[in-house]
Write a structure and sequence with these properties.
By secondary structure, chain A is of the alpha+beta class. Chain A contains 11 helices and 33 strands. In chain B, helix 3 crosses helix 6. Classes of the chains: A alpha+beta, B alpha+beta. The interface between A and B is medium-sized, with 26 and 26 residues.
């Protein structure tokens, strides 16, 4: 798992640096932080993932994932005033209604931080451990509660707050209830009255409706979408705006299909909120779908969405380093330049400018909403020399590696994982047999590559994907691009074990499941520690063009790799054994399947 | 690619061929099938590759020996010699490529009865062989295939002119120019004689050779010297670029040059007509949908005109059907050894709108398959005359129904050549062939264009419209009135319910449906 591994490494270095460098900030014993003065900001990678305005809009805060810090910016002077190292790797930050306190999500530290943002002090008032991999947070409009989405844990955590309101007593933050979801959550949006919450899939197209007051799951529905990276209520309060991508499994990765926007496309979808709130309503009826790009000008990787008080929509386009501004769905789009991989945004209190966090070059763009003019971006601090893998990360999220900017690697391999869909590429040597897009987490140690195991070198597969799927630079990507991308892929660790899996199944079941795994000789193909092997096996499956021998995928994190098998025919691990009888018509008892699945989910 | 785009876009060559200079072009340029073949040994390998391709890809391939026998017979006919005795028996005994090559060397006519070049003898072998392939087959060099792929992608790279060959002057002549295209911008004019291309005199070049020199990669320049019949020579330079031709048109063109998709009348009804199904078509449909769905109020129904549309491009048809269907099976495609089923993905354009699709006896191949998908999934009501289930008709008429088949272009050997042949049968989603009863394909086929009445009478297969219009009242596409509007200033069909009984019926059906909708 890339984020955790890299962030963990970053956290290690942070701690080391804290010990070595005089004058750097540290998390003090009393919970407050000592800021780094802007004059002594060190050269390091920060990765701003979220923005929040506090103090009447006079301070802009960035939550930095790589450095675990919060940068404090004065929007008036467009200068970084200070940087506070408060966690291991921050993914989100939100200001509370009192305009003083903020909540920060420490993705790498699996914590929610309550901070006092008054007078640039940014002291940590409370830390609460939540389920691993928290990525997003939404606070109630009255500041009394918040909800956190933990991605790999497939869980929401409901928390109560006592300091979000101006009349608050002692500041406190406590967990009220965890709620398990059937998918990995990411984006969150509350209904206008705060009674309901919509939660979007971090990879695929599922949307869950949550009753916030009862803290219960009401419905889970799917829309034809993946990479949902923007979820917001429209200004009218009647529609839900969703920024996402679409991948057509009937299309092929030919030049024509990419060129005409048939393979992958980038969209704003407008869903009726009343349909969303009714679990049995047809979600697509009366919905609208708007293209963000066009032939000749793709709009890869919608990566953020914000609605200003006048109803403008601003959508960050992470793959093409731009943002699109429109007066409303279906209205003309104006595309404006941003930095590398723009994502999170905040609109100034006067509604005139939008701040855009550019994750991959550690800057914040400032764009006038009406004119689209932008001034020079605000740098969060000095940049260090980038490693090969760091450069590869930039390429991974860069749609300029594709024809007309329709897609980046991330468009299908979402955050290095998979969007969960099928695609008909030349990965298996021919068109006609769409294959499930594989996760790239841990890919460096699971060769040979492709479903048919035809690629002995990861570099060759990287080059082939750029040439035959993305139809990128002609005649071929540079050696530097391929090397850097490969180095980045090799830096991606495997999916982390499902830490919540153990909670869900009794120890005895896990032991029985392990015994089934061994007795059935699953490890003949899926051999530990990566739970794969370099051979190709005929497991009784034939694809549409006659391939029968497949390279077994790693089972690390298999519980979050669904759907399974080369064509994604098994929707769940249970289906894999009950319905598809993997491998080779194996028959297992219900008890055996239950135990085996429980065991597999812990890998 | 449907015949519309191939005749318009492919005008660089086909317009000339249609214009009657086919014989000259054929006489002056060596056959693509045999141009680079030196003799029987090399030909042996080529024939082996072709027969391999037919056996691997054809829907119902003949035996290899049968194809070889036809090839050798073609050779002897071309040489004006009698077929050697016992030839069938000897060919039947062949089991290896080496044996075939040896036989070809042995039988190669050392003294043809008439004067004929080796190239032409080789061509006769290939042509004889291809004629024995059920449904016929055509071979073309990879370069030509690339151009066909550009047509299919609706991004033909060129300077956007149509040419013909002038027999008297022995010159290639510009017959049409796309307004605003590279040639137009460079100052080329209709009736210009092309005298030089990149400094090479075209006097001794065939039309095909001139076209080859005019073609090139996107963004590259070509220098051309042209002259009006009595004018001065002009040296012009054009930059090659992609040519896009709308495959979807509407009721009429607005002064802005964009299509208007609204039919006049008390009810707001949209109308779109598919001129072809190319890679761009689903994208074009999305654009139309974005426009019509965004209107307030938007049209309450849509007419999709599939008349006269004979598309052979399966893949874009699948994607187009997926655009229109919210769910359900689009259809099946049966190859010799496998069946592919295509299912629509969730969501659709014009979701919830009443649709009427217009069909006629010329709605064929994948266009007919699309109409079947819309009808089978209750997505559209079909109005018109019965479709014909393909234009490939066996010679042994009557009573021998045709099947809707798919013709594809597949590589031969190492990919230097491509073979176009029948690779699959098009079926309904439940596996029924589009034709009423599946027919075996006859090797000798002809394309029939008959009266609509006779077509309807003899149609054994095809889709039955939900509302059948008498063929007498439904003018076929080829006989519909026309008006100016094509890319070369050519003519274009009008859309007029007053003179179009099928369209009038479609409007009636939609209006009746809208009342209860």
């Amino acid at each position: 798992m890339k984020t955790t591994t890299r962030s963990t490494a970053a956290a290690f270095w942070i701690l080391l640096l804290l010990a070595l460098l005089p004058g750097r900030s540290g998390i003090c014993g009393d919970g407050t932080t000592k800021p780094v003065d802007a004059k002594v900001l060190t050269a390091r990678i920060r990765r701003p993932m979220a923005l929040a305005l506090v103090d009447g809009g006079s301070r802009l805060l960035t939550a930095n994932r790589q450095s675990g810090s919060i940068s404090v910016i004065d929007p008036a002077t467009r200068r970084v005033l200070a940087e506070h190292y408060v966690g291991r790797g921050l993914a989100d930050i939100v200001a509370l209604p009192d305009d003083r306190h903020v909540l920060a999500v420490d993705q790498a530290g699996h914590e929610i931080l309550l901070l006092d943002g008054h007078a640039d002090a940014l002291g940590v008032l409370a830390r609460v451990q939540v389920s691993p991999d928290p990525v997003h947070i939404v606070a109630a409009s009255d500041g009394s509660s918040c909800v956190v989405a933990s991605r790999w844990s497939r869980r929401l955590t409901f928390l109560e707050l006592t300091c979000g309101r101006s009349t608050a007593n002692e500041p406190s933050l406590k967990i009220v209830k965890p709620l398990d979801l059937p998918f990995c959550p990411r984006e969150l949006a509350a209904s206008p009255d705060g009674s309901k919450l919509v939660v979007a899939d971090a990879f695929g197209g599922k949307l869950a409706l949550i009753d916030w007051r009862r803290r219960s799951l009401e419905s889970v529905r799917s829309i034809p979408a993946h990479n949902i990276r923007g979820l917001a209520l429209a200004a009218d309060g009647k529609t839900l705006l969703v920024a996402h991508q679409m991948l057509n499994p009937l299309a092929r990765s030919t030049f024509d299909d990419l060129h005409w926007g048939l393979l992958i496309s980038n969209h704003l979808r407008v869903l009726r909120l009343d349909a969303m709130l009714k679990p049995d309503a047809d979600l697509l009826k009366g919905s609208g779908l708007f293209e963000l790009g066009d032939v000749g000008k793709g709009a890869a990787d919608p990566s953020g969405l914000i609605v200003d008080s006048r109803g403008h929509l601003i959508i960050a386009l992470g793959g093409v380093n731009e943002a699109a501004i429109t007066q409303g769905p279906g209205q003309p789009l104006r595309r404006v330049a941003a930095g590398r991989r723009p994502g999170a945004m905040a609109v100034s209190r006067d509604g005139k400018v939008v701040y855009i966090a550019n994750c991959l070059d550690d800057t914040v763009s400032v764009v006038e909403i009406d004119s689209g003019r932008s001034s020079s971006p605000i740098a969060l601090g000095p940049a260090p020399e980038m490693s090969l893998a760091d450069r590869g990360e930039r390429f991974f999220f860069d749609a300029r590696l594709s024809h007309d900017g329709w897609m980046s690697c991330h468009s299908c391999h979402t955050d290095g994982h998979t969007c969960g869909l099928k695609s008909d590429t030349l990965g298996d040597g021919s068109y006609g047999a769409p294959k499930k897009i594989p996760s790239l987490l841990g890919v460096g140690t699971t060769g040979p590559w492709t479903w048919t195991g035809s690629m002995e070198r990861l570099e060759d597969q990287v080059r082939k994907s750029i040439q035959t799927t993305m139809h990128g630079p002609k005649p071929a990507p540079t050696a530097e691009q391929v090397e850097a991308l490969t180095a980045y892929l090799r830096s991606l660790g495997p999916l982390p074990p499902d830490l919540t899996g153990g909670e869900r199944s009794p120890e005895a079941a896990l032991l029985r499941g392990r015994a089934v795994f061994q007795a059935r000789k699953c490890d003949a193909c899926h051999a530990p520690p990566e739970y794969t092997s370099p051979e190709r096996f005929d497991v009784g499956l034939t694809d549409e063009v006659g391939n029968r021998r497949f390279n077994p995928p790693s089972l690390r994190g298999v519980g979050r790799r669904e759907p399974l098998l080369h064509d994604g025919r098994a929707g769940t691990l249970e289906d894999l054994f009950q319905r598809d009888r993997h491998p080779r018509e194996s028959v297992l008892s219900t008890q055996e399947i239950g135990d085996l699945v429980a065991f597999l989910r812990t890998l | 690619m449907g015949r519309n785009l191939t005749t318009i876009l492919g005008g660089l060559v086909s317009a000339v061929l249609i214009a009657g200079t086919l014989q000259q072009a054929a006489a002056e340029s060596p056959s693509p099938a045999a141009a680079e073949l030196k003799g029987p040994r090399e030909l042996g390998k080529h024939v082996q590759d072709i027969t391999d391709t037919v056996l691997r890809h054809h829907l119902d391939p003949p035996a290899r020996q049968q194809m070889i026998l036809a090839g050798i017979k073609g050779l002897y006919e071309a040489a004006g010699l009698p077929i050697p005795a016992g030839l069938s028996r000897r060919v039947s005994a062949l089991t290896t490529p080496e044996q075939f090559t040896a036989l070809l060397v042995e039988l190669w006519p050392s003294k043809p009865a008439k004067s004929i070049r080796t190239d032409d003898l080789a061509e006769a072998v290939v042509n004889g062989l291809l004629a024995s392939v059920p449904g016929g087959a055509e071979i073309s060099p990879a370069k030509e295939h690339e151009v066909q792929e550009q047509f299919q992608g609706n991004r033909y790279i060129g300077i956007h002119i149509q040419v013909r060959y002038d027999d008297k002057e022995k010159r290639t002549v510009i017959a049409g120019i796309v307004p605003g295209g590279p040639a137009d911008r460079a100052g080329m004019k209709q009736e210009d004689r092309i005298e030089q291309v990149n400094g090479v005199d075209t006097k001794d070049l065939t039309l095909r050779q001139v076209v080859d020199r005019l073609r090139g990669a996107d963004g590259t320049d070509v220098s051309v010297t042209v002259r009006q019949p009595k004018g001065e020579a002009r040296n012009l330079k054009a930059t090659r670029g992609p040519l896009f031709i709308a495959t979807i048109t509407g009721v009429h063109k607005k002064t802005s040059g964009e299509w208007d998709y609204h039919l006049a009348g008390p009810d707001s009804i949209g109308y779109i007509r598919f001129r072809d199904i190319a890679a761009s078509t689903p994208h074009e449909l999305r654009k139309v949908a974005q426009e019509l769905e965004g209107e307030n109020p938007n049209p309450r129904g849509l007419i999709i005109d599939l008349r006269g549309l004979s598309s052979t491009s399966l893949h874009p048809t699948v994607l187009l059907a997926d655009c229109l269907l919210d769910h359900g099976r689009i259809g099946q495609v049966r190859e010799a050894e496998r069946v592919m089923a295509y299912d629509a993905t969730p969501d659709a354009l014009f979701r919830g709108w009443p649709l009427v699709a217009l069909v006629d006896a010329e709605t064929a191949h994948t266009a007919e398959w699309l109409a079947a998908a819309l009808q089978d999934n209750h997505r559209a009501v079909l109005v018109g005359t019965a479709t014909q289930s393909g234009w490939v008709q066996p010679r042994q008429l009557p009573g021998f129904p045709a099947a809707a088949v798919l013709r594809s272009s597949v590589p031969v050997g190492d990919g230097a050549w491509y073979l176009s042949l029948i690779t699959a049968r098009l079926e309904h989603g439940d596996g029924r062939p589009l034709a009423a009863s599946p027919a075996s394909l006859n090797p000798l086929t002809i394309v029939l264009r008959r009266s609509p009445e006779r077509n309807a009478r003899e149609a054994n297969g095809g889709l039955k419209p939900d509302h059948v219009i008498s063929p007498r009242n439904a003018r076929p596409e080829s006989q519909r009135p026309t008006r100016p509007g094509g890319i070369f200033g050519a003519e274009d069909s009008t859309v007029d319910p007053w003179s179009d009984a099928v369209l009038a019926k479609a409007i009636e059906v939609l209006r009746a449906g809208l009342k209860s909708f």
